[in-house]
Amino acid sequence: MLAKLKNGLPSDPELTIEQVWARLTAAPDNKTGDTHQRVHQYLVSFDAQSQEGILADLLKIERDSLKQNNRLRGVRQAIMDLVDRKLSAFYLNGVQQSVRTAATQSDDDDQSRRLGLALADSEIQIAALRAYALGKYGDGSKNDWFAAYEALSDFFHRRMFEAQTDTGPAEFAFDGERFKASRDKFQLCKEKCLDAYIGQKFEISNVGTNWFKIILRNLKRKVTQTKLIN
Questions:
Q1: pLDDT at 106 over 80
Q2: pLDDT, mean of residues 103-127
Q3: Who's near 8: CB < 8 A, 6+ residues apart?
């Protein structure tokens, strides 16, 4: 039975990660939503053993969150870590491509596929945890803490990988405010995302990156290997 939260979003307190996983990994059809379709595209790049490894990671996140006083905060923190990992892989791949040579092309192609799988792994887990947080706690809406954090993390990853710290932007925008581009201010804004109330809207200034197209480009050739992310 679905309960109703104050913001009107449905909530099922008994929802589990295994239930979410079963829904997301089921074969999509013409009625399937965009998220389900994207997850299916990511999943076909992993063999059965690797998929079990991804589920094991999700189950651990669920167990750890349920031990905390603020269970939703634990899920949000895990999602943030996955966003950071996804962005690190994306920008690292960009740096690699910019310095590649004919002599290193084979190794670079292999590394690019690995980074593509790291991106896909992260996106699968993010989709599952977002569905879990929405279904269990009613946490998930347009321009919410997740969108704000993705823009925040993207700014700092881009600054780190594409521009040296001393020449990168001195300030960044977050929810309509300007902040000095420092570790302390990054952490301050991250805490604002972690502590956001369910349904809270943020002013999002960054359009964002089309991760789906990037991942598909990096996964053109089917790769079967064990799970890459420790």
A1: no
A2: 83
A3: none
177 vs 170, residue with greater confidence: 177
Residue 185 half-sphere exposure, CB side, CA atoms within 13 Å?
15
pLDDT reported for residue 95: 72
Determine phi and psi for 115, rounding to 5 degrees. -65, -35
Tokens 């295994």 correspond to 18
Residue 34, judged by CB atoms within 10 A of its CB (0-12, 13-18, 19+), counts as exposed
Q: What is the mean pLDDT of residues 45-71?
A: 97
**Nearest one of 153, 146, 127 to 39, comparing CA atoms:** 127
Q: Which residue has the tokens 């920008």?
A: 91
Single-letter amino acid, residue 88: S
The tokens describing 44, both together, are 């076909």
Under 8 Å CB-to-CB from 195, ≥6 apart: which residues? 73
The full 3-state SS of the chain, as one line of letters, equals CCEECCCCCEECCCCCHHHHHHHHHCCCCCCCCHHHHHHHHHHCCCCHHHHHHHHHHHHHHHHHHHCCCCHHHHHHHHHHHHHHHHHHHHHHHHHHHHHCCHHHHHHHHHHHHHHHHHHHHHHHHHHHHHHHHHHHHCCCCCCCHHHHHHHHHHHHHHHHHHCCCCCCCCEEEECCEEEECCHHHHHHHHHHHHCCCCCCCCCCCCCCCCHHHHHHHHCCCCCCCCCCCC
